[in-house]
Design a protein that fits this description.
Helix 8 (365-374) runs parallel beside helix 9 (393-402). The protein has ten helices and 22 strands. The protein is 25% helix and 31% strand. The chain folds into three domains: 13-74, Nucleic acid-binding proteins (OB fold (Dihydrolipoamide Acetyltransferase, E2P)), CATH 2.40.50.140; 100-126 and 289-454, Rossmann fold; 134-273, OB fold (Dihydrolipoamide Acetyltransferase, E2P) (Beta Barrel). It has helices at 81-85, 95-112, 169-184, 227-235, 290-304, 321-326, 340-352, 365-374, 393-402, 414-426; strands at residues 13-21, 27-32, 35-39, 47-55, 60-67, 118-119, 134-142, 145-151, 158-160, 199-206, 213-219, 240-247, 259-265, 268-273, 276-281, 311-315, 332-337, 358-362, 381-384, 406-411, 429-437, 447-454. The strands form four sheets. An eight-stranded mixed sheet has the order 6-21-22-20-19-16-17-18, with helices on both faces. The protein has a seven-stranded mixed sheet with strand order 9-8-7-10-11-12-13. The chain is α/β, with parallel strands linked by helices. The structure holds S-adenosyl-L-homocysteine. Residues 285, 287, 316-318, 321-322, 336-339, 342, 364-366, 385, 387 line the site of S-adenosyl-L-homocysteine.
């Protein structure tokens, strides 16, 4: 059989028109119907000159050389650092076009699975920049200086920066101030190659409503050199109410180690969502866009049309934010979450808000729900908010057996959402609309809420 060769080869310089933008925010040029070339920083409609950097049998990658025409949706980047790091992969696309892009991504996945749901226009975030309430900043030694910044795309090479574009500027200021304290005291930065040096990451969390900030110093050593001085100086920074030393001695990409030690203030910060208080520890999952989280939850609450006599299951509950926010409106809330520490936080959060009609179960949702269904336990509304991999087949099977009359699916991955909706709808549910909610402006992540009812 003749070897099928690629229609382009490495180092070819070509021109073309960008037809599409992938989920990963790569522009797509096609040399023929079946052969796409993926090119970063290229937008649909643009005519570009590019060089082929890698040619596979069925597709290729290219690097943009020059724009022949540009898209009206392009936002010029005055700071090319962002493009190098991938910190904000959609920053070259205007915000309205980003919202449209996210809606279209869901629509096309639904079309592939023949799902007949209306995908509403994406709910814009109140602030498309400077929204993140959490930063995990790598620390490295560059030319003798301890630097903070972000990794160059697809690498662990640090690009120093102080304005992180999508983070709360008060967090950026804290990171910079901590960097300066560490520099002044000649504390060494982590060296990945030799697994040597001390400070690996600076993590900062800020509670948007209360302003409390937590600084986590991720260290290769159990105890920091001059720890008392470092802690005393960081504790003087504005809003810092909690400092934690996290011990991570391993040669690993995982940022946080398992052991941590509060060295100043409490081991948590406290924030508010929809009028309820939440305690957040260093390791807890907490939505990163606090203002838009309230809109996300509000959307889910409205779509669930909650009634005072209903029993609601909040599966994949994290520290209990959704369940606690809705408890006043229903008879009982039952939370399922796999991380024991998150459930410990959720229990404290329930107490903090005087919520008593709530119970907590630690375990895998795909194991707990089938047990409950087996026991014929009451469930009127099921709210799910799974990680990117979506729902497990055993979980869906249990849902189709118990048939709660309402199901609200909060999704951070439209591909697994489409897969799961297909199964739920084939199993007897009706879905009419999906509401995308932009939780991650400037990034390609897509969050949405879908309500299902029984046919
Ligand atoms: N609803 C929460 C958390 C959503 S993140 C909020 O809005 O803050 C998804 C959560 O699912 C995480 O807390 C994660 O620990 C949990 N999780 C992941 N896999 C799980 C599983 N198989 N069963 C139960 N919970 C799981």
């Amino acid at each position: 059989m003749a070897k099928i060769s690629a229609p382009v080869k490495k180092n070819d310089v070509l021109t073309g028109t960008v037809m599409d933008l992938t989920y990963q925010a790569m522009g797509v040029v096609k040399v023929n119907e079946h052969y796409p070339i993926f090119i970063g920083n290229a937008l649909p409609g643009e005519e570009i000159k590019y060089v082929v950097t890698k040619a596979n049998k069925n597709y290729a990658f290219g690097r943009l050389l020059e724009f022949i025409t540009t898209s009206p949706d392009r936002v010029s980047q005055d700071n090319s650092v962002y493009l190098q790091t991938g910190i904000a992969p959609l920053a070259h696309l205007s915000y309205p076009a980003q919202l449209k892009f996210k809606q279209e991504q869901i629509k096309s996945l639904f079309q592939k699975d023949k799902l007949d749901l209306e995908v509403k226009p994406t709910l814009a975030a109140p602030a498309p920049l400077h929204y993140r309430n959490k930063a995990q900043i790598p620390v490295r030694q560059i030319d003798g200086w301890l630097q903070t910044g972000f990794y160059r795309q697809h690498s662990h090479q640090l690009v120093p920066m102080t304005d992180f574009m999508i983070q709360d500027p008060k967090i950026d200021a804290t990171v910079e101030a901590v960097r300066d304290i560490l520099r002044e005291l000649h504390v060494s930065a982590y060296n990945e190659e030799h697994n040597s040096g001390v400070i690996r990451h600076i993590m900062v969390r800020r509670a948007h409503k209360t302003g409390q900030q937590m600084v986590v110093l991720v260290s290769r050593q159990r105890r920091l050199p001059q720890e008392d001085t470092i802690v005393a100086q960081i504790s003087e920074l504005p809003e810092v109410t909690s400092i934690i030393v996290n011990y991570n001695p391993k040669a690993t990409n995982v940022i946080l180690g398992a052991q941590e030690r509060p060295v100043f203030g409490e081991s948590y910060i406290e924030d508010e969502l929809l009028g309820k208080k939440f305690r957040i520890s260093a390791q807890s999952f907490y939505q990163v866009n606090p203002e838009q989280t309230e809109n996300l939850y509000q959307t889910a609450i409205e779509l669930a049309d909650l009634q005072p006599d209903e029993v609601v299951i909040d599966a994949y509950s994290g520290i209990g934010t959704i369940g606690i926010s809705i408890a006043d409106h229903v008879k009982q809330v039952r939370e399922i979450e796999i991380v024991p520490e998150a459930i410990a936080d959720a229990k404290i959060n329930a107490k903090l808000n005087h919520v008593t009609n709530i119970d907590f179960t630690v375990g895998k949702a795909e194991e707990i729900l089938p047990e409950w269904v087996e026991k014929d336990q009451a469930m009127d509304v099921l709210i799910v908010d799974p990680p990117r991999k979506g729902l497990q087949p055993e979980f869906i099977e249990a849902v189709l057996k118990a048939k709660p009359k309402k199901l609200v699916y909060i999704s951070c991955n439209p591909a697994t959402l489409a897969r799961d909706l297909r199964l739920l709808i084939d199993g007897g549910y009706i879905g009419t609309t999906t509401q995308p909610v932009d939780m991650f402006p400037m990034s390609n992540h897509i969050e949405s809420v879908t309500a299902l009812t029984l046919a």
